[in-house]
Specification:
Strand content: 25-35%
Shape: elongated
CATH topology of the largest domain: Umud Fragment, subunit A
Number of helices: 3
InterPro entries: LexA/Signal_pep-like_sf (IPR036286), Pept_S26A_signal_pept_1 (IPR000223), Pept_S26A_signal_pept_1_CS (IPR019758), Pept_S26A_signal_pept_1_Lys-AS (IPR019757), Pept_S26A_signal_pept_1_Ser-AS (IPR019756), Peptidase_S26 (IPR019533)
CATH class of the largest domain: Mainly Beta
Low-confidence stretches: none
Order of helices and strands: HEEEHEEEEEEHEEE
Radius of gyration: 25 Å
Keywords: Hydrolase, Protease
Pfam families: Peptidase_S26
Protein name: Signal peptidase I
CATH architecture of the largest domain: Ribbon
Catalytic activity: Cleavage of hydrophobic, N-terminal signal or leader sequences from secreted and periplasmic proteins
Helix content: 10-25%
Largest sheet: 8 strands, antiparallel
CATH superfamily of the largest domain: Umud Fragment, subunit A
Number of domains: 2
Amino acid sequence: MSRVPDQASNKNSRQENEGSWIGELGRTIFLSIILALGIRTFVAEARWIPSESMLPTLQKYDKLIVDKLSYRFTNPQRGDIVVFSPTEGIIQENPNLKDAFIKRIVGLPGDKVEVRGGRVYIDDQPLRENYIEAPPQYLYGPVFVPEDSYLVLGDNRNNSYDSHFWGFVPRENIIGRAVVRFWPPNRVGELN
């Protein structure tokens, strides 16, 4: 004698399977969102270049990965390309500017920085710069970089809204260091 399946039992079993599938999907989506927000907040995030101020190193619309973790353990170094929040000097001049900036660190805390004769001088020594678009056609300084601050310049020195206009970047404004270009595909790679 064969047993006829109980329809109520079959229905409950189906609801449990569907419920567990929907519940699992919900938990997976929730966990993915939490992980993505955590990574973006504390580890790394993608950014794009809105201007030509970093030519020739970075071109307009390049897309980068910004490392937000390493500066929790080390200090920014001369030559690092950093992303930072607008400084008080920027906000005073342009209250509507709220987007992050990207520039190269040139002056470290305590450095004497001067721009003259188409060269940048750090503590009266010319800085070797094989990454700039053209020699700077302006005079700046000498200035001393304050403690816990940095002097940043665009690689396109003559077309960059940078420290020589609005001053120094406090350490707490630095979001992270640009480490990898991931777009466009023909120029993917690590940034030096």
